[in-house]
Amino acid sequence: MKKYLFFLLILNCLSLNFFCEEILPEIPETVLVQSGSFTMGNLKVRMASDTVAFPCRTVNITYDYYIGKYEVTYEQFDAFCSEISKEKPRGEKRGKYPVMYVTWTGIVEYCNWLSEKEGLHKAYDDSGRLIDSDGNETDEIELVEGYRLPTEAEWEYAARGGVHRNDDYTYAGGKDVNEYVWYLSNSFNKDNDLFEGKGPHEVGGKKPNQLGIYDMNGNLWERCQDWYEEDITDIGSDNPLDLKVNKYDERVLRGGSWASCIDGVKLAKRCKYSINRGTDLIGFRIVRKK
After folding, report:
1. Dist. CA 174–CA 194, nearest whole Å
2. How many other C-beta atoms lie within 10 A of the C-beta of residue 132?
3. Beta-ladder partners of 245
4. pTM of the full predicted structure?
5. FRET pair for 66, CA 20 to 30 Å: which of 11, 33, 163, 178?
6. What is the pLDDT at residue 235?
7. Would you say residue 23 has pLDDT above 90?
8. CA within 13 Å, CB half, 178
9. Residues with Cβ within 8 Å of residue 63, at least 6 apart in sequence
């Protein structure tokens, strides 16, 4: 009898674990980025593109934070959509491919949903404004607890390798573009059908940077929290964040994409895009304070 009850107990536990794995959403894996200072902006690399990096300046990140090891995938975003009965974004290649066609509103909803899953205070109010753990609107990013988009400074600091950075690197992780980056000249494969066989690849297909973060250059442009301004040298050096609304509703993009030329995937490259539209060139990764 005891053996029979023990067998039932083991079977029940196995069934429960299987059930939980089936219904619980996959939480994006993150990497710890330790606080520190770095030189933000275009260092030694000339850029021939029209949207250039702003002048170099010293930036201080005064807190540790976690950043997505990979760009958010369809697999992860689809789990969110299924649970709240939200229409899933376009995309024929799903699974481990980075999610595309997501607007600012979709990202805010996803981040708040993820925070609730993890038992964290939400990062955004219903209007998409940053809030602290008491639910009050804030412009101090270090007071935000839940999952959110990275600030432009957080993005670049992590891409450069944080405390392990090498300022001689052209791309996140090294100098050889083909080792670290999916871009226009190498993004062809049999599964891509967006532009003459070129398009994004599944996340993690290239080498990671010094912190173990993948695809910070290339694959998809990544949205940042900041509103876009051409010159942001006047927004401060400690935990900078530009919250001055862009009159065209454009926020910062970083990293370049599968369709970018070699100039467009360099570490200091900046770009912009409307918060109200999604595209097959833009994705995102999540951040939260430690």
Report:
1. 28
2. 16
3. none
4. 0.89
5. 178
6. 86
7. no
8. 3
9. 35, 142, 239, 289, 290
If phi > 0 it is left, if psi is from -120 to 50 it is alpha, else beta; for residue 128 that is left
Q: Which residues contact 175 (CB under 8 A, 6 or more apart)?
A: 168, 169
Q: Are 40 and 59 in contact (CB under 8 A)?
A: yes
- What are the structure tokens assigned to 44, written together? 């030694």
Percent of the chain predicted with pLDDT > 70: 87
Is 28 within 8 Å of 284 (Cβ atoms)? no
* Structure token digits, residue 196: 């003459």
Task: Tell which residue, 176, 180, 256, has the closest CA to residue 212.
Answer: 180
